[in-house]
Design a protein that fits this description.
Helix content is 31%, strand content 25%. The protein is of the alpha/beta class and 181 residues long. A seven-stranded mixed sheet has the order 2-3-4-1-5-7-6, with helices on both faces.
């Protein structure tokens, strides 16, 4: 399946975390699945996933069930088993260094301070894979980082964040289809 794509949304499993800042990757995968008629309901390699098409390309959409900091434990074995080259693995995740409502697409790069990305890089043994970073920052001065990312997205920001999931889904589709967003 060398031409297949693996598109991974990062987050934490469970209702407790469903609408937190740290689950922006999961929520963006849900948006991508809805836009492309893909059901993300199968389980394999410590992940929930679905298989379908974006344009003419076969894709797997994945939500690791390992908790954020161990995301690579799902991504690495899945990519190896299905023989998916890192250049065809797209990671969607929250980024506190980008303002809310903004996304950034990168062809490669370091993990920065994101532990989920550190885990994926360690398991893939490369940082040469594309990513779509979903802005969740800045962290309010009165909060520490962990409290912030595990807080629910406030009602007054949900529409802005929802719009960023649309933008992240479109950017991901463009990557798969070989277009620049």
């Amino acid at each position: 399946m060398a031409d297949s794509w693996l598109i991974v949304g990062l987050g934490n499993p469970g209702d407790k975390y469903a609408y937190t800042w740290h689950n922006c990757g999961f929520l963006a995968i849900d948006m991508l699945a809805e836009r492309n008629g893909i059901r993300v309901e199968r389980t394999q390699f410590h992940a929930l996933f679905g298989k379908g098409k974006i344009g003419d390309s076969e894709v797997f959409l994945m939500k690791p069930k390992t908790f954020m900091n161990n995301s690579g434990e799902a991504v690495g074995p899945f990519a190896t088993y299905y023989k998916i080259d890192p250049s065809h693995i797209i990671i969607l995740y929250d980024d506190i260094d980008i303002n809310v409502g903004t996304i950034r697409v990168r062809a490669k790069g370091s993990a920065g301070t994101h532990n989920g990305m550190k885990s994926i890089i360690a398991h893939l043994k490369t940082q040469e894979f594309p990513r779509v970073r979903i802005g969740t920052g800045p962290v309010p001065e009165h909060m520490d980082l962990i409290s912030f990312v595990l807080n629910d997205i406030p009602k007054e920001q949900r529409q802005t964040v929802y719009d960023s999931f649309e933008a992240a889904a479109k950017a991901t589709e463009d990557l798969v289809n070989g277009k620049r967003s």
